[in-house]
């Protein structure tokens, strides 16, 4: 196995900003990525994640800020001089070249002798498990196969950094799951750093060592999967991470803790942002609300969808606000239930007036 | 009993007929194509065959007399080389220049102003360009004046009523066409292909050579064919701006003279056939050369 | 990504801009010469004429009988536009929506008159029209000009119609529209911009179409461009200024319609009639 990522210690993004006319697509993004790390840039469309990736690749210039690879400043280099591998959303395979020539293109640009190119291309194709398709044209391959060629083409040049721009979004659900595992396997095998752009939080959670949640060009939170899942730092991050219940509320202090109004009831909760009293927002995951006849929150069920293991329900609370929860028992429209939640899992944020 | 059997059999054959028609998508909508097709067959295909037959029925001599006459009289057969001497260089200049200029211009924001200006000569047509050049390139015209003013030449250069004038008019009317066609092919190449090439270490020249040019090959071949065919049929400029009895006696002039001066429709048709045949030969040669190169789409080939 | 950093890169880029600038400057100067000359009292041996007048326009109008010529031109162009639309649009619809045996052959049939230049098929066509006693009169000219324009309309309209989702028509039928109402309420509004664009392009091209009219016109059925040709051809006899006055009238006529057409169409569509891709 001779394909291995070039050595480096850290990639630093310092205050990276990019404007398009009056639109600030990226605002002052600062981040460090170590060799071997798998970092996901996660956020809704328009959050700036693809812009950040394109700036890293050199396909866009920075309006301000800088990018460093160890001691070398690279943001003023053209893309062909940076040596990063990139996998595009639409694969961008050269339609007039066979798989072999596609994968070998970067090596040809480096001026390697043909024998070396052939050897490395074969290795890369073995890694992505496409060795017997080497002479085909991209048009003759399926979406998943094209995706693998794109990956092989990016890793064969042994880059320190591999950039991936929503590579799985054009595949069907089953293929996406398979390719997800493949991407992680390949990343571990060659030991490069990978920066992976996606809008799918499930994908980010399952693949990344660290996740960078972005919104409107800003970094909202950087953390591991667990950190983002258990303690999202802001209400919008919580919303994106699957905390489907984002409830406007008022907070009152109680001893060392905090109490919030939810659906007319008062419950104990955990402040994440510094809120002691006044307007607040409470975030609760649907699966962390439990049906309990003695629970504080009264709900009238609106809809209940059977999901095998339990029912996904939505209902209205006493003050008319909607709430989403899961119920293990058979539930139907019109039922009245009571819910409770562990105070540690009711997260309170300041009301940003969203 | 038999009545219903007959009815059902009739209904069956009716059903099979309509199913046969439906499978081939032949219905009332398809019929809409008939008037236009009839028109073209009547007024394009038929005249072609009529002309072909007419060319084989000369006023005097056997059925090949026209063609024999054409190829034995230098006054006639030299028109082919004269026309090629105008058509081939102008086509090469027009298409070759269109590529680097289109590459440069394709990212321009105000591209529409440029393309609008370039559409003007195509719209104005060859007659007006001939008249314009007669004025502009004449010995007293602005072009010669400017050259003398900047000391490039001492006395006026002869640019009209010769080969040069016709050549220049072919470039003025032909370059915009070649350019717009090339531009549309170049902008049809997926930009992410170039981006991918850049991330893989290809600089601008390498990207052009390995990525863009192969994908343009088919479009350029079509461009050359269309441009050549246009320049080969040069007529009003060769008469007004050139030397119709000398250096720019092109084959269309020979055809015109046979038809409207000698009133020999048979000979005129023969010359028109020869014109078409020469164009066809050269187009076939161009396309055959291209088929050694890449054949495919300029998209990303998504499965 | 296209930043030019090297000196040779910058030089190359500049020379490309110089070339295209040179082309445009000369083009505009050429047009300006004609315009200036048409207003000149006389013009020999000086940068600009000594005096200006509009009398050449009056004299050209009379000399070349421009009132008749313009009427003929608009009759021909109008008829060609209407007829090519009536023949071409239904054919385009059929080709866009149905895949019948022989479809490729039909498309080839429509491509040929566009790829083969007018001179090559113009002479046999004129011969046939003379035999049928159409040529020499305005109907001969109209028919001859229809030969390249009907296919043009078809080929311009096909991608336009293909862009309209056929399920819209199916939806209209599901909601109870018969063929007539489908046509009026759904198809015509959706197709109108495309038809307008195609017909405007036909108009512009036909005004400038020289060879076909030249071969089929009689003395009273000449269009403006043919009359201009004859005037330039006999240039020794007439004053250059009055010829240029006629040329300016021709230019204004074509360019006015070009500008109108460009409000609806991208300039490249005048040219890329044989490209299959719909943008």
Count of distinct strands of chain A: 20
The poorly predicted ranges of chain C are: 274-279
Strand order of the largest sheet of chain A: 6-7-8-3-9-10
- Which two protein chains have the largest interface (Cβ within 8 Å of the partner's Cβ), and how many residues from each? B-C, 96 and 92 residues
Average pLDDT of chain A, to the nearest integer?
A: 90
Number of helices of chain A: 8
Topology:
The complex is a heterotrimer of chains A (354), B (303) and C (279).
Chain A lengths: L9 E11 L2 E12 L3 E5 L6 H9 L6 E6 L2 E2 L11 E3 L11 H12 L3 H14 L15 H13 L5 E5 L7 H18 L2 E6 L2 H7 L2 E6 L2 E6 L1 H6 L4 H6 L4 E10 L2 E6 L2 E7 L6 E7 L4 E3 L5 E10 L4 E7 L4 E6 L8 E6 L5 E4 L4
Parallel strand pairs in A: 3-8, 3-9, 6-7, 7-8, 13-20
Antiparallel strand pairs in A: 1-2, 1-4, 4-5, 9-10, 11-12, 11-14, 12-13, 14-20, 15-19, 16-17, 16-19, 17-18
Chain B lengths: L1 H22 L4 H4 L2 H22 L9 H8 L1 H32 L5 H26 L5 H8 L13 H24 L4 H9 L4 H29 L3 H5 L10 H10 L4 H26 L13
Helix pairs in contact in B: 3-13, 4-5, 5-8, 5-10, 6-8, 8-10, 9-10, 10-13, 12-13
Chain C lengths: L6 H32 L16 H9 L2 H32 L5 H13 L2 H14 L6 H26 L2 H9 L4 H30 L2 H6 L7 H10 L6 H23 L17
Helix pairs in contact in C: 1-11, 2-11, 3-6, 3-8, 4-6, 6-8, 7-8, 8-11, 10-11
